[in-house]
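look at this record:
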Amino acid sequence: MTDRMYRLIYGSVMLIALYFAINYLIYFLIALMIFEGVTNWRIPLLINKLRGTSPKTDINSNSNCRIPVEAERVWRLMIGITFLLTYVFFAEPLWFVPWFLAFVIFGAGASDVCPGLIAMKKVGCK
């Protein structure tokens, strides 16, 4: 499983959970994203280890890194915290932010272009 496929599945499940207001599923997805960001135990990597395949790697990923943390890890942590803040704590005034994030994650999975990951790499993450 690639990170692109994972983002597509995560975004679509989050959109479905938001549409039908399945709060427990939304809380689970938020906790999953924060857990993956903190521990770096990502579902695509675990599935690839179980299948015995290696994920594709970017050759130039370590050429210009100032921050020794993977961009994917920082992205997952930021998305999880943003979902937590906007859906759990400030749900009434910021109701549109989780919807926007879910659509962006779904679009990143469909197109393999994620503005958040591009920004993290520009900042200096691996």
